[in-house]
Amino acid sequence: MRETARKPRVAGFALFTLVLTASFVALGIWQLQRRTAKHELIAALTERLAAAPVALPPAAQWAALNPARDEFRRVSFTATYAPLPDAMVYSSGSAVRKDASGPGTWAFLPARLATGEMVVIDAGFIENTMQDRSVEDRAVKKLVTGQAVALTGYLRFPEAPGWMTPAENRDKRLWFVRDQLAIASALHWGAVAPFYVDLEQPAPENGIPRPGPLDVHLKDDHLQYAVTWFTLAGAVLIAFGVWVRARRES
């Protein structure tokens, strides 16, 4: 009777061990797959950031652009900053700008192309730790001259807010996520391109706002995580083996 009761317990624990081990192994494999994908992404972004700038695609091609293929592509074009209210976008630090590692705001301004379309420009970083509207007003005022400017930058696509992203402050024209479509709608900029341009150059004489080149700094901890999951899988099997041996000896 006692032996009969033991068998289901051993079988049940063996099944639990098998499921747990398989889950840990699957998670380890998933991390290795993510590592491969991350390396491919880093290689693609590095290539795009190092490439010579190309002409901004015409408006007829904008709908076909997508982040997987076109994020961080360097482009050059001429546009005129529109005399419309700008937006501040808060940043606690940039993952692609070495010179913007602390808190501040990005200056988002609409600019009109010679063909009439509106493109949103991230004109650069302002070390505006208090998100003071007057600080950004002084910084961007000199950019809106009514004259066309030759610009070089990177295609970027709108970010989605997280569940902990604060709501925008309309009075300060302050946002906490880079979503030029939402900003344009709130500030009545009219129809804008489905992307914005992260400005590389030119920089104002005093460097405020501060545009600049981008660099890839993506975290790559997937191998470490994979080793952790595989180690846990091995530990579970060892623990099961020790348990079974102890039962036999008793």
Automatic annotation (TrEMBL):
- Residue ranges crossing the lipid bilayer per the database entry: 223-244
The main location class comes to membrane
Keyword terms of this UniProt record: Cell membrane, Membrane, Transmembrane, Transmembrane helix
Q: Which domain of life is it from?
A: Bacteria
Location of this chain's protein in the cell: Cell membrane; Membrane
User: What CDD domains does the entry give?
Assistant: SURF1
Record's Gene Ontology CC terms?
Answer: plasma membrane
- Supply the Pfam families for this chain: SURF1
Membrane topology is: Multi-pass membrane protein
Alphabetized PANTHER family for the sequence: SURFEIT LOCUS PROTEIN (PTHR23427), SURFEIT LOCUS PROTEIN 1 (PTHR23427:SF2)
Family designation: Belongs to the SURF1 family.
Q: What is this protein called?
A: SURF1-like protein
Protein's organism: Bradyrhizobium huanghuaihaiense
